[in-house]
Amino acid sequence: MALSPSDVKWLFEKLRKLDFLSYHSDEELTSLTLSIGKRVFLPGENIIRQGQKGDALYIIRRGTVSVWAETPQGRKRLAGLAEGDYFGEVSILTGEICNASVEAEAEAELFLLPPGELRKVVKANPVLAERMADAVSRRKGVRALGLEPAAIPASRLLKNIRSFLGLSV
After folding, report:
1. Is residue 121 a contact partner of residue 24, using CB atoms and an 8 Å limit?
2. 3-state SS assignment for residue 144
3. Which of 159, 34, 148 is nearest to 93 (CA)?
4. Which domains can be identified in the chain, with CATH numbers?
5. Rounded CA gap, 162 and 169, in Å?
């Protein structure tokens, strides 16, 4: 689905505010914005499945989604996300499998940033990998099945990001 001019403006402003993208230049953010696609998911439709590799960074433009995890005690709802929230960044930056599933609660319009586009920006400016690893480690710790942020050190994520992107480790 093509992006409207208002979509492009909203996305650029949103990308500028995302903790792990806030250090990117306007040129890098413009490139990312123009590479993003849009898709509508219907209520109950799976967006990401736990145990699989992620295929995009998702940003919610409209609607709501639920984050779920299969645990030894059964299926557990971890979070509800709405307009402006995002998910999927850890998998596309590190190559790790997704630690939770995400499904649409209500009809949800999502922007999808392909992993290759984000990787291009980080490869062109490798210092961004460190800043992104720090931001993602804080976010992943809060999200990952109730783990505390300190349980997932930024140094480990940075190593994973650099390795996955083919940067010097």
Report:
1. yes
2. coil
3. 159
4. 5-165 (2.60.120.10)
5. 6
State which H helix or E strand residue 83 sits in. none
Cβ partners under 8 Å of residue 27, min gap 6: none
- Residue by residue, pLDDT tens for the chain (169 residues) are 788 999 999 999 998 888 777 777 888 888 888 889 999 999 999 999 999 988 898 999 999 999 998 888 889 998 899 999 888 887 877 788 888 899 999 999 999 988 888 778 777 777 777 777 776 666 654 444 443 434 456 676 677 777 766 776 5
User: Strand 65-71 and strand 101-104: pairing?
Assistant: antiparallel
